Structure prediction request, 302 residues.
Amino acid sequence: MKTSTPAAPPRHTPASITGPILAWYDRHARDLPWRAPDATPWGVLVSEIMLQQTPVVRVLPIWDVWMARWPTPAALAAEPSGEAVRAWGRLGYPRRALRLHAAAQAIVERHNGKVPDDHAALLDLPGIGAYTAAAVASFAYQQRHAVLDTNVRRVLARLINGVEYPPKTQTRAETTTAEFLLPSDPPTAARWSVAVMELGALVCTARSPRCVDCPVLDKCEWQLAGRPPYDGPPRKGQTYTGTDRQCRGRLLAVLRNTEGPVEKPALDIVWSDAPQRERALDGLIADGLVDPLDDGRYALPT
Ligand code: SF4
Prediction:
């Protein structure tokens, strides 16, 4: 990967920022199974999809179950996609289960069952976006890629740009900054990528950063500017109760917890607002998460 210089380069050298964060990571990294020396690239890929929009503590038990049941892409690909949806449990955003199943099938068909180590081949898998391809190439294969997730974007926004939150959608300038900081040696770059992500998860958190524990407190532009409050467009709230998302979750839970198809009244009973319920059910069908059968019943996909 080529390293470009940001339009307004940080006032500190990359090493003076990456060094303390790498040293902090050595002392404070969480002991997570997908970071263990014996973790497989498949385990890393599954963890990366599960961790999108879901905290580690909720992912851990489901990841364990998945790895025990489907230790390889071939094992998952051999089962119906509905089993992936069932085993997704309450992780939320269940289309991710379908994406993982589709990726497993593509890995079997195109790569002989081995998660590819090439960034472009990863990106070419169904449901794998730029972030996941970079993360798997970095964390499973120790390559050098800019890995920008929500946590990293927030850390860099504060540390380098002096603002509390990054823009709503990722900009080219953020990628340039991430590439500028990326150590040149691939294994160190991969370690840096996970280290800055961990700093965002544990210290530079969204609502109450623990700046006194931060290894780069003296270099943080947001701190040096006096912690100016966010003045961008309104940020998305976390409302869940009463939403279509909650309704979809209830409907899908009925199917997950039942062996075989269910009658429509079994779905109707879990959500009283009929128009919202029908809308949510239509959405689940359109997303391929629910199969409407010819006899009027509903099932997980096969
Ligand atoms: S000093 Fe605070 S805001 Fe700045 S990077 Fe560290 S934790 Fe984040």
Summary: Residues 244-290 form one domain. The CA atoms of residues 282 and 290 lie 9 Å apart. The mean pLDDT is 93. The longest strand covers residues 291-292.
